[in-house]
Specification:
With 81 residues, the chain is mainly α. Helices cover 70% and strands 0% of the residues.
Length: 81
Amino acid sequence: MLPRDPSRSKPIDEVAVSKLRTPSSQQWRDAALADFDAFLIDHAACERKASATAMSLVSHYPDRQILVREMTKLAREELEH
């Protein structure tokens, strides 16, 4: 377990796991928490890649209004967190 951040009311592993939408294996949880900084950096890189892919679709298919609207929303959402 990572050191407790005094500004948090729960240990960091409980905070991180409580926000997951689906159950995860203990092995995955332990690996993510073993180097939480690396996990967060990797997660941010994945979100930037998702945003870039969405914008790539927008640039390839500018005539598809629904696709452009939805991919623009997705790109923004991925970069906001």
